[in-house]
Amino acid sequence: MTAFAVQPLACFGERRADKLKRGFQYERPVSDDAELLQRIRDGAQEEFAELVRRHQSHVFAILYRYEKDHHRLEDLAQDTFLKAWRSLDQFDGRAPFQHWLSKIAVHAALDHLRKQKRSQKEIGFPELGEDALDWLHNDDKQSELDVSQAREILAGAMRKLSPEDQLVLTLLEIEDRSVKEISALTGWSAVTVRVRALRARGRLKKALEGLEKK
Amino acid sequence: MNERKLNQLFTAAKTETPAAPNEGFAFLVMQQIRRNPKRVELSVSDLLGMWFPRLAVVAAAVIAISVISEMVVSSNAPSLSESAAQLSGPLVVEN
Description:
The structure holds 2 protein chains of 2 kinds.
Chain A: H1 2-22, H2 33-41, H3 48-63, H4 70-86, H5 97-119, H6 130-137, H7 147-158, H8 163-174, H9 179-186, H10 190-213
Chain B: H1 3-14, H2 25-35, H3 44-76, H4 80-94
């Protein structure tokens, strides 16, 4: 009796397994990253495109802080996704995929800043307009600066800093991330993040003061 | 450069809208992957790294169980020095 009860179930199981082998399971759209990742690991390589489409804006948003040129930004984003592809087996699924991808993007950004620093011997400040120079020299609380000029000043001063200083200030002051988040993204300890951020802020001020004196 | 001015610069940077990816960006990534689809195989150290917290907990549990069982067994059994004295007793008397 038991054998009769089990046999039809076993047959059903076989039929389902056949369907899965033929790839019927991949016809259904997947809302979950984990399921999509499992499909990719099972050999559905093309499904990675869907993962790229889902997270490309997030990756671009991270990298745009460090590279404004669209072509170079696109190269950097491609590198990030290729690194993610190559080390996909190392993703253990304990944290969301986007967190893991953000880590890769942040490290790609840091490598990019280091390469830039090596290739540039002396970085000069950009040519600033009169309004920007007035704002820098003037301590008047009422003085306002055009947003694009403010960004230009900050970008110029940031370029004077080390890649690590640029990264920590961008994550902490511009992206408003917590010390814990920065620690998780960079792999630095919380104390290192705090100390580095404090020193970087001081160095940024000095760089801006150098610009004031010009 | 005072704090107010510095914060003004950071605020300006915060409001910057990041560039959006082009429509065919995913296609470009897939082209590169098709050219070289190899993925990095996991090494033993990678596997250990991935399993680290779980392995550490299991190892700690095994050690704790071993220590507790050893304590329980040794509390019921006679001590080693007593056993040794018992064994060596007749030999000492004979000599």
